[in-house]
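#dry-run=false #mode=assembly
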Amino acid sequence: MTPHQPLLTLWDLAPVPVICGDRLRVTVGAKCPCGCNLADEVVRILDSDGQELQAVPLGDTPLPGTRGLYWADLTLPAPEAEGAHTWAVRCQPRAHLAATARLAFTTTLPAQHSLTVRLRDTANLCPLPGAEVRAGSFRAITDATGVARLRLPPGSFRISAWQPGYRASPVKAVLPRDTQIDLTATALPQDDPLDIWC
Amino acid sequence: MVNAVSGLKEITVRSGGSGDPALEYVAAAFEKETGHVVKITYDNDLAEAEDAVFDVVVAATDALNRQFRPTGRVEPGGIPVGRIGLGVAIRAGAPVPQIGSMDLLIQELQQARAFMVTTHSSGLHLEAAFARLGLFDLIAPKLERFANGPLLMDRLLAGHGKEFAILGMNQIKRYEGRGLVLVGAAPEEVQHYIEFVAVPMAASSRKEIAWDFARFCGGPGKPLLAANGFNQGNATQGPGGPGTIRETTVQDSGRNGIIWDHEADFVVIGSGPGGILGAIAARDKGASVILIEQNFDLGGRAIISGGGTYLGGGTWLQKQSGIEDSPERIIADWTTIGHPLGRYNDRELVWTYAHASVATFDMLTENGVSWARLQKSRLDSVPRRAYPKKWQNQSEIVVWGAGEEGAGLMRPLAASARAKGVQVLLQHKMVTLHRESRDAGRVYGVTAALVDRHFRPTGATVNIRARKGVLLGTGGHSMNVTFRRIFDPRLTEEYGVAGMNWAPKTADGEIAALKINASLWGTANQTNEGDVQLSKGRMGCRSNYHSMPSSPESPHFFREKATGIQVRDYQNLILVKENGKRFYAETESKRDFEYFAAAMQWTGDPAKMNGGGPIWAIFDADGVAREGWNVTAPYVDEDGFFFRADTIEELAAAIQNEFQWRPMPPEALRATIDRYNAFVDGGADLDFGKPAPLHKIQKPPFYAAWSTPCIHDSVAGLRINPDGQVIDLEGQLIPGLYACGDTAGGFAQHGVARSFVFGRLAGLHAAAQGQG
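#status=ok
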């Protein structure tokens, strides 16, 4: 009989971004395509040098909403160095082939400055609440006054905003200190179904 | 009427000669009316069944006289039920032979690859007739003989090139809709009629019911027999009435010997906006009108639309709203060279539309449409687009939301048409336009096939004579893959169509007209990319036009199967092609033709180099939660249009759909998602520039939903003149033929208004003509 090979999936990596030297959390799921019970099978986290960082057993029940995905939450120490990192998640249940997945993430220095972004409608300069503002992998939502506040490490950032029905051109911001910037978004032509469907 | 008989019984019927399958329709009608059960046994040779006893025999007169009457096995007398003649049939798509005279028929026979007959009486008669005329040697090299009709049909339908058959009309009718086309009756010189009679057998123990059945065959059952190949002879014309069809059969031997089941001055094909207003306009002028609709309800696509009607030029609603407008202003707007919707229009048609708009609007109002508001959109420089009030009778709404206004437009018109005496024939689809010859003479009638509630032919057809004209309001061509690819070869089978399950736009009007030499017109409009030829669509269902979610309460939900799910924010998903790869920024507009071009780009199918295959939306449990979707039936169609799995790799493997030419490579989808998730981390989509990609696709379960672009408007079609008359390839009128709406070309205006205008003008023009 050919041994089965599980499929691995990772989700809910947090925080985003990961802070150097802090801790990170991630959820690992494993599924045998043939429906084997993977309860208590072990998943291992290996760093980029192949050193095992942690080994945890999968839970004894599948994730709700799935047909047989066994899972485990992991909490790990984050690397001290700033930058991109790739770890491996490995699982080899009994009588199964080994499976490996890639855990890629970026670490940044701790935040030191605040960035205040004021987002307004290009046409009338009214504030746009509820928009998602991004500065690299940092993010925040604009409040009722159209303002989003982020805590960022020093550096250069591409600031963008997203609100369905609007288009905002990203701007570049360099943060040697606390900063405030204005961003405008232009309403796209309305896609009113009634306008399209006579 | 059939006598009331106490006690329900089974009667047995022997159908001799070639009386099948028309008799089955009659039997079913008899069963429905009386409750008795009719069991039919077929036998092509009654002489071999001399001992069998049945309650009724339906057989050729000469067979009865020869085999039954001398020994007293049947009751004296009997009920004539009609006669069956010989017809000429071809395979659908084969060259149409000219059979108007013996000379033409002989020419066609000599040029044909094969000429097929059976060895039954019809074939024997034919060969004898050709021999009698001294023509047998001319046809003999092409002659192929078959032991029975089905064998002949198998050969004819599997053949190629110019081949045709002559055999009983009922046999031909039996195969219409299955690839066979009736060309017409055989010329009189070789024609042969078999008279049929229904008569109880003397030994029948249920003679009273047997006589009822025989009388039913010769009375109420006659139209059913006529629809299936029986020639009824010259019948009288009964009175017509609102909502009914006269049970009339008229032989018109001067025109290919077609037997007419119904006739009217004006025959309208399609009950959409142009058809229904054309029908009313002609009826208002005193013409009798028959309106044919393939659906089980009136209204066409307009009744599921938002009802917006571009009619201005100074309508009372515009005046009431303080809006100044004029026909000249309409013309300037809709012939602007600065926009693709104006640039390619036929100026003559726009001029007519502009000057007829006020009268058309008034007519809509007079026939019951109540108006709610005006809107300025597309090329209009002032508000012209009038919206009807929402229809209040919930049981008469097909699509809730926008369709409530569509119902507000079409329900009053349908009611008015019926009240004014327009005769309606539902679940009938036109299959043939009859013209005196292919490129000359009048259009004088149509053949329509009875279809079931899934638009499938049942085998029954009716011939309808049009004394003054036929109006084609068949709704356009978008659903006919072969036809739509005339304009854009990329539009292969995978692309669905707006309203496809309510009002299929299968180019039947265009094709029927092209077969009699009509011209297409304004083809640049079909690909001008200025409007709604394509849209991004809803997800998770095949019928996925974005603003038409049919709820399970909709009367045609049995055809829709799922409502689909609407996307609020395309940040919650990615779109991939059949190969598992992204191809465009998902957040682009639902009208972005660059997006459609990318979606339709070839990805490697060795058997199909046009069309891009399915587009799948891929999302995760978090995406479902953010959108608030319900991803179970009936919101999604899990029969090929929606899939779920615990892992990305399993999701790719799970996608099985008739348009997915290979399994989606799991590793490709995994790589796509890993890369996209990295873009989310980095805040920028380095591949396609999706603005600030927000959400990873990471949390199980994972989903794939059909998100393939949806086709909408047909804005190229038949060439018409300002009266809606169809023009041929030589620039000449085709007398008696009209077209409107999406069936007509030359005017790239979305929606119902141009349909109303030219349908009305066609109705008025036809009503003023002499009888053809």
